[in-house]
Amino acid sequence: MQTPDEALAIAAANGDREAFAALLNRHYDRVFGLSFRLTGSKAEAEDLTQDICLALPAKLGSYRQAARFTTWLYRVTVNAAHDRRRRMATHRKAADGWGDWEIARRAEIAEAEEAEDWLTATMARLTPELRDTVALTLGEELSQKDAAEVLGVSEGTVAWRMSEVKKRLREMARAEGML
User: Fold this and answer.
1) Taking each helix axis from N to C terminus, what angle separates 69-124 and 5-13, rounded to the nearest 10 degrees?
2) CA distances from 77 to 42, 62, 66, 131, 143 (A)
3) What is the pLDDT of residue 1?
4) According to a count of CB atoms within 10 Å of the terminal CB, is the N or C end of the chain lower?
């Protein structure tokens, strides 16, 4: 005579490994079949069934024989499928958020690179004296006094050159429709 599921469930809840193994042997295919119908995917069903089997020893403590063991096991399976769907939706939503952030970050980088490329190309069209002045004051972050010393000109000349650079850059940007 075969031991009823309910008796095996009580024994398994109390730590009887053989009872737990007998329950799994009897109902593994049933849990997998329902998991497959709930997920529609063999891989998802395998993962869900594995999760249920791992959680089952702890869950058996809540089995109260109010329903047949199989009814209770179906409920455990359905709840596990719902929980998995919610987790996956949350992960997808979080991933979408990161995806949007990453797209915005890459667009920002591309925009900065484009602006830098324009500035580099535009700077190449300046006279060597203006380029040298910009390279020292903006590129090397020297003060106008220090740049004047390096260039061998007065500080006022460096200030005039920087003013001239700004004026020419604005003119070039307007001519190219950027302003």
Assistant:
1) 60
2) 15, 14, 17, 72, 71
3) 65
4) N
- CA distance readout (Å), 56 to 70, 76, 104: 13, 9, 44
Residue 106: the pLDDT is 87
Assess contact for 35 and 45: CB atoms under 8 A. yes
Count other C-beta atoms under 10 Å from residue 169's C-beta.
20
What value, to the nearest 5°, has the Cα angle with vertex 88 and ends 86 and 89?
65
At residue 20, the pLDDT reads 92
User: By the 8 A CB rule, do 78 and 72 touch?
Assistant: no
DSSP state of 140: S
Phi/psi for 146 (5° steps) reads -65, -40
pTM of the model: 0.53
Ordered mean pLDDT values, 10 residues apiece, the chain (179 residues): 87 91 94 90 92 92 84 91 88 70 85 85 86 84 88 92 90 83
Q: Is the CB of residue 32 less than 8 Å from the CB of residue 80?
A: no
Rounded distance between C-alpha atoms, residue 147 and residue 130, angstroms: 12
Question: Both tokens of residue 149?
Answer: 């010393």
Please give the DSSP secondary-structure letter assigned to residue 12: H
pLDDT of residue 150: 87
